[in-house]
Design a protein that fits this description.
The protein has 1435 residues and is of the alpha+beta class. It contains 62 helices and 37 strands. It catalyses: L-threonyl-[protein] + ATP = O-phospho-L-threonyl-[protein] + ADP + H(+); L-seryl-[protein] + ATP = O-phospho-L-seryl-[protein] + ADP + H(+).
């Protein structure tokens, strides 16, 4: 395979191995085809550029021009400019994979409209200007701006996006060097192009002026009767604003054009000037009104569009008619072409013929050829290609027949020697091949490069062509000039079906090219594992070598093709074969430091100590290159560390010479054999099973968790002597809801704290309000006030016990909501744990169900969803859950004859719980009903037995212990003492310490397995970090019980700040006197438990402890101004009506505090209110750029409500603030509760303004119903009036609303992963009427997927519905509204309704908004912690 000089971004590989390209091009000379990525299903446009073969050739594009276009496309990334994704190259072409711009030309789109105001026209022109502005900012001139190059990305959306395309003439302008050229389209080129003067960015602005002129009038300003006249008009700037065309055009529009169509480039408007022109950006109402009232001349514009569309055809017909008349007058004159020249009229005949062939115009071609006497249809075009070959490439058999009747020679060939069979094979036309073969067209003709039709079909991946040619006995073993067979071509480009077809046809699988490569070597080097499998299956020799002595394994290792390496090793290839330098594949992998390949080859029993010709073993090469992990693995596998090279050097000597001290240290520790053997022995599994797993207990306060634990600890004798704990009263255990409770205490602040009568604290903008200074402070927290009396007995935070619970590490999670904000790091981070959920039977049935739902939803919400969806949306490793009902004795639950409690609602409750959570959690079949204090009861024994069964099942799946894991268990207490007051360590430090002090041979991967085992046992806790590395908590009890229990406990001494959740640093230090307070607070900040106050470093906020209620709970009418706008949203759980778990609102308050710090103005004179934040129980108020927002926890914790208000002139800022706060909330949900699916409802702006309660909430179904009825407003059933979409969704801001996409038009890929998983659960299961996903696939036109997945079993790993949605997302029109309609057609209204609820109602295209957002306040990072956990520990 010959190798070309390539651009840095180009791949010399097969386009069709990555993309599925449309089989039918638009013509022989068409350069753009639609293609689809085979993996993602996303569609792109493939632009095929023919390369110029030699400098003297005039055919094709020079490499310099191709490189220029590619380099420019690489540099640009803008919403209004076409994007380049990839570049491929083969022998003949360079293929650019571009963004698919499928909406057609802008002018064609506008021509379909009945009317168009200038205001609407400028919206499109503004996009063009934005794109040009971006290009000019990078000194790129397009030089070919014209209507044909102004396209729409998607014409079916409400506000189509403009895309500027075709950068074939674009240049990077060097202002220090003059650039001159004559190119472009005559109508649109600038005078400096015509006059061959220096060119710059100004040439594009001239073209913009011409486009605008045509857009407004339907006339072209400089178009003459011919090219010369047009260019003369351009040079003279000869144009007028004819009244016939510009009668309704505004003065501003004409001024805009006139400032662009200026001959002197220096006096022409720049792109910056254009964007600021009052026609584009009106300065006052009068200018905006004139633009709105003026209109485009649609009558003339439609005629212009039609005239332009057919201009080429009309001109061609005219030429052909003139040509026909000329022939009639010269009936006896031959028009045969000479060998080297072709007169002008003959060239037009050839153009007409080719035009007819490309358009499949059979009647037109017959008419044209019938009017020509003595015309030789075998003469080639200027590229040396006869019409018959062009027709064969287009695949039109009727055209070929017409040409043959006119005398076309079936054996004709082009100047390179290719015949019609070759052309048809290249473009994939099997029927044409069959016709040509029947007409005796030669089959195995080779062109000048030696290629046959089979070669070209294999190179382009046309498997049907290859199969047909083989079936008619085409020779598959003919070689080209490089001695490559068609199988080499298929192997090089990665076409597995082609390779299989050739192998099945009996081709020579071990043929070698000029470089000595067989197809197996080629495929292995290129990484095409499916072709390697095919070749081996058909007997390819695994040990064949090229001229350098490389086997397939050598080449795969050298190119880092890991999957090919594994494939070859599976087929037992020779692993120790040496190349001409004596290197084995293991030598190459060690030199490259490729650990996965080294591991695979070592596992295949490769020789570890085989020297190459320099006497170097693989260990020498790894040490010399400083590959520590490779050295570690080789030593562990048994490599000889004392081996020496030809010049007497050991691996340690080589590492020392290169200053690889870490490698030197490792090898030094291994010098003694007994040490090395003991290290290896430590890593081998023993017969010892994992001694314990975690048992986690959840339940509301008073559910009996602690009592149950005491009972589980007790044996028979101890149960007689155990004291029953004092039980809390019902009121204390189950306080009133925070939402409807009234504050039980209302005291004067002066009574609580003498001397504070006139307190006005301004600290980080969290102030006491005026009501406080008057002496009244409402102190209220249902949790704190109710639980304070019993807090000494209640569990604090997370109580961890390792002893006496039957081989369990017990983690009891407090039912006190103040601690919930810490649970996300500990509750569901271990799939080997058993999760016990307790609830009290003293409560009503609905309350019992609510408590269970809350805790199960917590476990579900904390489970990270997998990107790949399994059949039925199943979870791969669901958490094990046991339900325990307590207080059966107090609830008078009857006993069965056997002595067990018999709860009559057990079956109904289990059924309901399984319906809700059965797909997400592994819930035990039995509900354990008991008296938690009866340690020796039969119910308790059954629970003990069940827990032991679950434990045995889990342990059987766990890896056995190793000597190293036992050693780690032994040294952990010492490490905890040495760690100091804070028991946290970065993962990298943990790895380093183990390798340094315990076992230098343990790898990171091996150690992670051991660490997870310790994590499973409850000895350590691995805390996942969003940043670079994870964190190891050496002593979970230190953080979970001591620190969090003390900090968040209501026993903490009270101070005035605590009612607002504020602490002084010295108070925090007093809670943990042995800890470094700064480090501790950084850790808690990273957990979103508290927020450091950067404006007052001595204070820290802990929102979970806020007791202040009602600080600006709502806006009042006294504050109202007539010019204020209102709007808001409510974010709610989409599946289960239960409060958000894990103290989500407390965490949200922490994130809002951080965000507010980022908004504080630094410069003098800025608005002091910017960045203000006020916190209270279940609420917060923030402000930014003169706009205010309130964030509230509503509906008993089941919703987060964000309300925003601002002045009428600040509509965009209102939307920006709402969008920012929604982003903060959604980002927090995604990071804290990744398994929690939410829906967004919208609040009535009018009722927010009127302070109406309750507020009308608009749900997604309301918007969908209105969209279906083509309405743009919703009825407020409470108020009896209608509110527009724009006012509800975008504060009435037209600029934002026009760039938004409403729910039904949202692309299916924007539907959240959790929603798609739920759809899979609904559509995958078989149904009596058929499989719904199959019916849906057929309705969506994806019948091929039915055959692919119909035989799949429910145990399969791939989900058919997920695959269907993924495939469909790459098709045009894959919108939510279409999918809902299809689901309703199938009778699956439930699935359609769920999709509607979970899909976005309104999505703003922020990229397209681009410059429109200029002047909007900047958004922030969503309140990301300043101290991510790993960054804290690394410091």
């Amino acid at each position: 395979m010959s190798v070309f000089t390539i651009l840095t971004v180009m791949h010399i590989c097969s386009l069709k191995s990555v993309f599925k390209v449309a089989e039918q091009p638009s013509g022989q000379f068409a350069v753009v085809r639609r293609c689809r990525h085979r993996t993602t299903g996303v569609e792109f446009a493939a632009k095929f550029i023919k390369k110029r073969r030699s400098k003297s050739s005039r055919r094709g594009v020079t490499r310099e021009d191709i490189e220029r276009e590619v380099n420019i496309l690489k540099e640009i990334q803008h919403p209004n400019v076409i994007a380049l994704h990839e570049v491929f190259e083969n022998k003949a072409e360079v293929i650019l994979i571009l963004e698919l711009v499928a909406g057609g030309e802008l002018f064609d789109f506008l021509a379909e409209k009945e009317s168009l105001s200038e205001e609407e026209a400028t919206q499109f022109l503004k996009q063009i200007l934005d794109g040009v502005h971006y290009l000019h900012s990078k000194r790129i001139a397009h030089f070919d701006l014209k209507p044909e190059n102004i396209m729409l990305l998607n014409r079916s959306v409400p506000h189509p996006r403009i895309k500027i395309i075709d950068f074939g003439l674009a240049h990077k302008i060097d202002f220090g060097n003059d650039f001159k050229n004559i190119f472009g389209t005559p109508e649109f080129v600038a005078p400096e192009v015509v006059n061959y003067e220096p060119l710059g960015l100004e040439a594009d602005m001239w073209s913009v002026g011409v486009i605008t002129y045509i857009l407004l009038s339907g006339a072209s300003p400089f178009l003459g009767d011919n090219k010369q006249e047009t260019l003369a008009n351009v040079s003279a700037v000869d144009y007028t604003f004819d009244e016939e065309f510009f009668s309704n055009t505004s003065v501003l529009a004409k001024d805009f054009i006139a400032r662009l169509l200026v001959k002197d480039p220096k006096k022409r408007m720049t792109i910056q000037d254009s964007l600021q022109h009052p026609w584009i950006k009106p300065k006052d109402t009068q200018q905006a009104l004139s633009r709105k009232e003026s209109a485009v001349n649609m009558e003339k514009f439609k005629k212009f569009a039609a005239r332009r569309k057919w201009k080429q055809s009309v001109r061609l017909i005219s030429l052909c008619n003139r040509l026909s008349r000329s022939f009639l007058s010269r009936s006896n004159i031959s028009v045969a072409r000479s060998d080297d020249t072709l007169d002008e009229e003959d060239s037009f005949v050839m153009k007409a013929i080719i035009h007819a062939i490309n358009d499949d115009n059979v009647p037109g071609l017959q008419h044209l050829l019938g009017s020509l006497n003595n015309y030789d249809v075998n003469q080639p075009n200027k590229h040396g290609t006869p019409p018959l070959l062009i027709a064969a490439g287009c695949g039109n058999i009727q055209i070929i027949e017409v040409l043959m009747r006119k005398g076309a020679e079936i054996r004709a060939h082009d100047k390179s020697g290719a015949n019609a069979i070759y052309y048809a094979a290249r473009h994939g036309h099997v029927a044409t091949l069959r016709f040509l073969h029947d007409k005796k067209c030669p089959l195995d003709v080779q062109d000048k490069s030696g290629e046959t039709a089979l070669h070209v079909a294999a190179r382009y991946g046309n498997v049907d062509v290859v199969s047909y040619l083989c079936s008619i006995r085409a020779n598959p073993d003919l070689t080209d000039r490089e001695q490559e067979t068609p199988l080499h071509c298929a192997a090089w480009h990665g076409y597995s079906p082609v390779a299989r077809a050739l192998c099945q046809a009996g081709c020579h699988v071990d043929a070698k090219n000029r470089e000595g490569e067989s197809p197996l070597l080629t495929a292995s080097a290129r990484g095409f594992v499916d072709i390697v499998e095919c070749l081996v299956e058909h007997g390819a020799e695994l040990e064949t070598t090229d001229k350098e002595g490389h086997t397939a394994l050598h080449l795969a290792v050298r190119r880092c093709q890991v999957e090919v390496v594994r494939c070859l090793l599976r087929h037992r290839c020779q692993v120790d074969q040496q190349d001409r330098h004596g290197n084995t594949p293991l030598h190459i992998a060690c030199k490259d430091g490729n650990l996965p390949v080294v591991m695979a080859i070592c596992n295949a029993k490769a020789s570890l100590d085989l020297p190459n010709k320099s006497g170097r073993t693989p260990l020498h090469l790894a040490a010399n290159n400083g590959s520590l992990e490779v050295v570690r693995h080789l030593c562990l596998a048994g490599a000889n560390i004392d081996a020496v090279t030809n010049d007497g050097k050991t691996a340690e000597d080589l590492a020392s010479a290169e200053h690889h001290e870490h490698v030197v240290s490792l090898l030094g520790k291994l010098k003694k054999d007994n040490h090395k053997l003991s290290y290896i022995q430590q890593l081998r599994p023993t017969q010892t099973v994992q001694p314990r797993i975690k048992l986690k207990l959840f339940g509301h306060s008073g559910a009996g968790k602690s009592t149950l634990l005491e009972s589980l600890k007790c044996g028979i004798l101890r149960s007689f002597f155990r004291r029953r704990r004092t039980r809390m009263t019902n009121a204390a255990r189950h306080p009133n809801s925070p939402v409807n409770s009234k504050p039980p205490v209302s005291v004067s602040i002066s009574n609580l704290y003498p001397g504070c009568e006139n307190v006005s604290v301004r600290s980080r903008s969290m102030m006491f309000e005026p009501s406080l200074t008057k002496g009244v402070l409402e102190v209220f927290s249902p949790v704190h006030s109710a639980l304070s009396a019993a807090d000494e007995q209640a569990t604090k935070a997370i109580d961890i016990q390792h002893a006496n619970i039957h081989d369990f590490s017990v983690w009891e999670f407090s039912g006190n909501p103040v601690y919930y904000c810490t649970y996300d790091y500990f509750a569901a981070n271990d799939v080997t744990a058993i999760h016990v959920v307790l609830f009290s039977l003293e409560e009503p049935y609905e309350t019992q169900l609510g408590h269970i739902t809350y805790w199960l939803n917590l476990l579900k919400a904390l489970t990270l969803p997998q990107e790949s969806i399994s059949f039925g949306g199943r979870i791969q490793q669901p958490l094990a859950v046991v339900l325990v009902a307590t207080h059966a004795d107090l609830a008078d639950v009857p006993r069965a004859f056997s002595g067990e409690f018999s709860y009559d609602k057990e079956r109904a409750l289990l059924k309901e719980v399984r319906n809700r959570f059965g797909n997400d959690l592994q819930i035990s079949d039995k509900l354990f009903v008991m008296d938690a204090g009866a340690s020796n009861s039969k119910d308790m024994k059954l629970l003990r037995s069940h827990l032991q069964e679950l434990r045995a099942s889990v342990v059987s799946r766990c890896s056995p212990m190793t000597l190293l894991s036992e050693r780690l268990l032994a040294v952990l207490p010492t490490w905890r003492k040495l760690s100091g007051p804070n028991q946290l360590m970065s993962w990298q430090q943990f790895v380093s310490d183990v390798q340094e002090h315990i076992n230098p041979l343990v790898s990171q991967d091996h150690l992670r397995t051991l660490a997870l085992q310790l994590h499973s046992m409850g000895e350590i806790n691995i805390m996942q970090s969003e940043t670079v590395q994870d964190v190891v908590l050496l002593e979970p009890r230190w953080l979970c019980s001591s620190i969090l229990g003390k900090l968040l406990s209501v026993e903490t001494p009270k101070a005035i700040h605590h009612y607002r959740g504020r602490y002084r640093l010295e108070e925090v230090q007093a809670l943990a006197p042995e800890s470094d307070v700064d480090e501790l607070l950084q850790i808690l900040d990273a957990m979103d438990v508290c927020a450091r106050d950067v404006t007052n470093p001595t204070m820290v906020d802990v929102p979970a402890l806020i007791k202040t209620n009602g600080l600006h709970r709502s806006w009042t009418e006294e504050e109202e101004e007539e010019s204020l706008l209102y709007g808001g949203v409510r974010i709610v759980p989409a599946e289960h009506l239960t409060p958000f778990p894990c103290g989500l609102f407390h965490k949200l308050q922490v994130n809002l505090c951080r965000w507010s710090h980022q908004q504080k103005p630094e410069e003098d004179g800025a608005d002091d209110n910017d960045g203000d934040i006020h916190l209270w129980t279940n609420g917060a108020k923030v402000s930014q750029a003169g706009v205010e927002a309130m964030i509230l926890l509503v509906n008993h914790g089941q919703g987060v409500e964000i309300q925003v208000r601002g002045h009428d002139s600040e509509r965009a800022k209102c939307y920006t603030l709402l969008d920012t706060l929604c982003s903060i909330t959604e980002n927090l949900l995604a990071s804290t509760l990744p398994g929690q699916l939410t829906a967004k409802y919208y609040l009535s702006p009018q009722q927010l303004r009127e302070h109406h309660a309750p507020i009308m909430v608009y749900q997604p179904k309301d918007f969908f119903r209105a969209q279906v009825q083509r309405e743009t407003s919703l009825t407020n059933t409470m108020g009896g009036y209608r509110e527009s979409f724009s006012s509800i969704l975008a504060f009435g801001c037209a600029e934002i609303y026009q760039w938004g996409i409403l729910g039904t038009d949202v692309h299916i890929s924007d539907v959240p992963l959790l929603a798609r998983r739920k759809l899979c659960r609904m559509l995958d299961p078989p149904d009596a009427m058929g499989k719904d996903w199959c019916l849906l696939a057929m309705n969506l036109g994806l019948t091929e997927l039915v055959a692919k997945y119909s035989n799949g079993t429910p145990n399969g790993t791939s989900d058919p519905t997920a695959a269907l949605l993924q495939e469909w997302s790459g098709r045009a029109g894959s919108r939510v509204g279409v999918l809902m309609a299809k689901l309703r057609e199938l009778g699956r209204r439930d699935a359609a309704d769920f999709l509607l609820k979970a899909s976005p109602v309104f999505k703003v295209n922020t990229e397209a908004l681009g410059g429109a957002a200029n002047g909007y306040p900047p958004t922030c990072n969503g309140g990301t912690s300043y101290n991510s956990i790993s960054s804290v520990i690394s410091r």
